[in-house]
Predict the 3D structure of the following.
Amino acid sequence: MDHFSPIVIERPALRALDQTLLPAVEHWRDLRDLESICEAVASLRVRGAPLLGIVGAAGVAVASESRGVALETLGAIATRLGSVRPTAIELATGAASAVDAVRALPEGQRSEALWRHAHEYLLRRVEEDEALGQFGAPLLPSGANVLTHCNTGALATGGIGTALGVIQVAWHEGRLARCYATETRPLLQGARLTAWELARAGIPATLLPDTAAASLIASGQIEAVITGADRIALNGDTANKVGTYGLAVAAARHHVPFYIAAPRTTFDPTCPTGANIPIEFRSPVEVGGFGGQRWSPEGIDAYNPAFDVTPAELITAFITEVGVVSAPFARAIEDILKAP
């Protein structure tokens, strides 16, 4: 399977594939300070909740090269990183994990330890993706057509992916017939990124407008819908790329299983329900055009949430690196968060 990674951790920089330029151009950027990392995250040059966890951990190491390793300084760096995209919990927890990893060490040992922690974080993510894919693939019937939304492959995690990792494993096991991918407007992560990854993996794929997804589900051609997640509340309510909620509603209406594939780090133990998840709103400019071309009139406003929240009752199960979590979710989520 494809183990391509969109980031390379090379002290003193974090090298990142600029995902805003894909699929036309594969351009790598060296991110050498806190501001360049924050800009890359805010502009979606690097994106995907699990990958942002790695970027958070590596970002603390990068920023410490110029700002120092005092615990107060590292804490401020982690807070700044975590605030760039508030919905994706893993950005903040990845950064916080770096500070925690060196908290008990003398200052002279912290710099090397921060880089070591970032490398270990990436390696652990690769292993978790593999495990998640192995748990998720058996949920699909033989010859399944699967619908996915946004991008959840290597570009989003650094491993084989979450939802797309399940799809990759299912393809290699002979379970998958075809993957249908939404364009994922307004920034086209499905059309640009997921389609690119599916082509690299040799998986039969069909791209569709977001507005066609409900009718595709209703047609009976889809055996399962699988997406990723950016934050999961303790009751199972899930924030993911805007449009996910609508897919879940359509899937429930037509009795199609709806799965969320995400590592345990996506579950937020401080968040009781979806009402507590902060939703990032992005610039109206993203809706009015794309790639420098504008197609809507100047001056018109736009409603542009980056995420929506899918209620737990619409979710069939969560696929994690330690197993499949089925309803009732509150107790099951508590159990997997306690698992070693």
The chain has a mean pLDDT of 96. The chain has two domains: 7-130, 133-338.
